[in-house]
């Protein structure tokens, strides 16, 4: 699964001013990322505002993304939810042409215990013909997948190939690295901690700010993959303020503001999100002048 080493980007979903999906903007974004040197694309993760898309819209976005990518990069589809049977059915009916894996978020809102999380992923593992990346993001789901559960799943089901972990706990990351199978991938789910996570053995990141700055971010991550952390650190530090701004008013609000300023796509989002404030927009523009 070396295809998932390095920088994956969680694609935003561009919208027109009337709220419809902007497929021309999505095409420009995909080409922007391919030309920016990233390693793989993640379609309809959290950053894609997937919670606001209909089933028909999701199907069309997945198909369009595969068509425009045209085999240039590996593709991952975000398919998750808080109803195990519904998620399994969506995985069963997913037309996987062009896709190499599924990213599936730990169930949100229900707040299952660890056995419930284990049984959820067990069911999905036994359903899916594609390998699955687990996704732990307690700040959104309301529950944390512990290292014990992660490693139990990794040992029990070979098509659970890695985890995107956004728990923010290095105690947790350390324990996963110590106890996981050798070929199970730890992937950073947070841009600001990608470098230190890779220093303990993570294989890369699924990035948000990579939407806007694919070349700068993926170059830094490749230095980390090569063990050149001294060379990577200045780039890492130079991106911290831009990253902070991108999340200051919610994701993907900030990075969409940056993408509009770069001429890639518009900054429209769907309610309950709203576009970046004038002040944030100006701060992001200033950072882009320094970084782009």
From TrEMBL:
Pfam families: DHDPS. It is an enzyme of class 4 (lyase). GO terms for molecular function: 4-hydroxy-tetrahydrodipicolinate synthase activity. It comes from the Bacteria. Pathway: Amino-acid biosynthesis; L-lysine biosynthesis via DAP pathway; (S)-tetrahydrodipicolinate from L-aspartate: step 3/4. Keywords: Amino-acid biosynthesis, Cytoplasm, Diaminopimelate biosynthesis, Lyase, Lysine biosynthesis, Membrane, Schiff base, Transmembrane, Transmembrane helix. Pyruvate binds at residues 47, 206. It catalyses: L-aspartate 4-semialdehyde + pyruvate = (2S,4S)-4-hydroxy-2,3,4,5-tetrahydrodipicolinate + H2O + H(+). The record marks 46, 109 as: Part of a proton relay during catalysis. Its main location: cytoplasm. It is found in: Cytoplasm. The active site is at 135 (proton donor/acceptor), 164 (schiff-base intermediate with substrate). CDD domains: DHDPS. Its EC number is 4.3.3.7. Catalyzes the condensation of (S)-aspartate-beta-semialdehyde [(S)-ASA] and pyruvate to 4-hydroxy-tetrahydrodipicolinate (HTPA). HAMAP family: DapA. Homotetramer; dimer of dimers. PANTHER family: 4-HYDROXY-2-OXOGLUTARATE ALDOLASE, MITOCHONDRIAL, DIHYDRODIPICOLINATE SYNTHASE. Belongs to the DapA family. This is 4-hydroxy-tetrahydrodipicolinate synthase.
